[in-house]
Amino acid sequence: LPSLSLPSSMHLIQVDSVQRWMEDLKLMTDCECMCILQSKPIGIEKDEQNELILSSQYSTCDNLQLLLKRAWIISTELTRIAQKLEKNRWQRVHSMTVRVNCHVRSMINEYNTFTRNSSEEMHQFEKLLIDKCSEFTAFTERCLQTEDEQILKSMKSCIKETLTTVAQYFGQLIDLVLTHEAQNLLRQIELSDSVYITESAINSLFSLTQEGAHLCHIIAKEGGVVALFKVCRQDCFRCLYPQTLRTLASICCVEEGMHQLEKADGILCLADILTDNTHSEATHAEAAAVIAQITSPQLTFTQHLSSFLEHMEEIVTALVKLCQEASSGEVFLLASAALANITFFDTMACEILLQLNAMKILLAACSDKHIVDTPYSRDQVVTILANMSVLDQCASEIIQGNGVQLLMEMLFERSSSGNSAEVAACERVQQKSAVTLARLSRDPEVADAAVKLSCIPRLIKLCRSPTERNNSDSVLVACLVALRRLAVMSPDGLEDSDFQQLVKPRLVDSFLLCTNMEESFV
Q1: What is the CATH number of the domain that holds 320?
Q2: Helix, strand, coil proportions of the chain in percent (round to 5)?
Q3: Which letter does DSSP use for residue 254 in this model?
Q4: Could you tell me which residue ranges the Protein inscuteable homologue LGN-binding domain spans (predicted)?
Q5: C-alpha–C-alpha distance, residues 154 and 379, integer Å
Q6: Considering the domain boundaries, does residue 137 fall inside one?
Q7: Closest by alpha carbon to 100, among 142, 130, 62?
Q8: Can you tell me the distance from the alpha carbon of 308 to that of 262, in angstroms, rounded to the nearest whole number?
Q9: Distance, CA of 105 to CA of 133 (rounded, Å)
Q10: Three-state DSSP class for 482?
Q11: Above pLDDT 70, what percent of the chain?
């Protein structure tokens, strides 16, 4: 089950390549102008200056995005210089070094136009970086003036060393800048009583979290989680709860965010929000998203879960209610994802769900195509069913809610778009529906219902046809196990060839047979 989490390194939002080129063109042409002007400002009247400075016409959020784009270009260019250097492409190395030099100067100039209170340490790093870039450019220019292989070889090691230093200074400067901006935004959030100022700062902070795990770590380290939970405890900011919680969910993808959540007693705050019926559905949904994030099975750090267990019953109860009353597919997805994650780490959660008639609620939701409208939502539902199916009482609930029919339908899950994420979700739905059938088929009544609904032929098809399961080995294993369980309960449902190849051999032998099977064999 994928967690609703965020990217792990600084990146830009994926957009159409032509659109991206158009956006970058402004930065690139500015850079070429700077090359000609040798980074000297144009003398103009003071009151007209802002019209010609690229970053001045934007808000703080836009300025940060511009800075990150410039940083991404510089980082990319440094990588390309290293590649060209290995191939001794001296002319290209020099021209790219000049370009990096200009980009660095442009970035620093742009940043200083919208930042009034940067630290002395930052100014020192700016000077170090500019000096080192100038030295770098001088080195590469000297390489163009000689063809002596020995001289070039000795200079190459110096250039490599300088390139490493430039990259190091650049990384440290970017970290300082981002830390400084995070501190400014958090200071606004902590000190302001204005809804408008606080909203603007939170939106800018959220924008930063979308740039990757490193930025989330910086924000958490600077006290971002504590500051945001403080907002969530003030009634005057109720209208800001949804975007505040969305930002918290993003920050909590990193370990430092989890540590801060524990310090801020964040789980109690989330439980209070989820159980308070006066909050909007949007607020409840975003609180569910934070729960889904912090309970993700993919996270390796779980120290916070001890305090989660104290509030689990009230949280699970609130999430089931949110699933039942969801007005849209998105709200249902967030609530069911949180429930699915919770069922992984404590069997008590499954028992609570059983007591709350969650099975009936989830099965009913699946019949509403406006609520359970994507493979992602069905993935969450079948995850909950699979984890609950270890309980003996679950079988009667499945029968009463027509759950076997739903599991059979899920074995036919296919992607309509061909999108890789959707295809992966469809594979998980097929796999988990087969796992659930295998677990529940220990009950003769469930097994009988599965046989009557022609589950056996469908499982055989999934085993024998790689395209039906999108060549997924995990789906194949789950289907083989389910097929063997049903074959025990209803041996007459299989032809002899199916029995001899898919049931009688060891599981690993049947698996190898099916993975090597040609499509024409089916």
Answers
A1: 1.25.10.10
A2: 75, 0, 25
A3: S
A4: 13-57
A5: 59
A6: yes
A7: 130
A8: 10
A9: 9
A10: helix
A11: 86
Answer yes or no: do 436 and 344 share one domain. Answer: no
- Which residue, 150, 177, 204, sits at the end of a domain? 177
Identify whether the C-beta of residue 243 lies closer than 8 Å to the C-beta of residue 203.
yes
pLDDT the model gives residue 423: 93
- For residue 395, pLDDT over 60 is answered with yes
**What is 137-167 written as a DSSP string?**
HHHHHHHTT---HHHHHHHHHHHHHHHHHHH
Identity of the residue numbered 91: Q
Three-state SS at 178: helix
- Predicted pLDDT at 18: 73
231-239 LR contacts (CB < 8 Å, sep 24+): 231/189, 231/198, 231/202, 232/269, 232/273, 233/269, 236/193, 236/195, 237/195, 237/198, 238/279, 238/283, 239/195
Tell me which of 366, 389, 412 is where a domain ends: 389
Cα 32 from chain centroid (whole Å): 36
| Mean pLDDT rounded to a whole number for the chain | 84
Q: What is the DSSP letter of 80?
A: H
Give the pLDDT band of residue 25 (cuts 50, 70, 90). Answer: low
CATH number of the domain within which 161 lies:
1.20.120.330
pLDDT of 330 reads 96
Domain extent, residue 156, equals 56-177
- What is the pLDDT at residue 60? 63
- Report the pLDDT averaged over residues 141-168: 81
Give the tens place of pLDDT for each residue, 341-374.
999 877 889 999 999 999 999 999 999 989 998 9
Say yes or no: 406 and 470 in one domain: yes
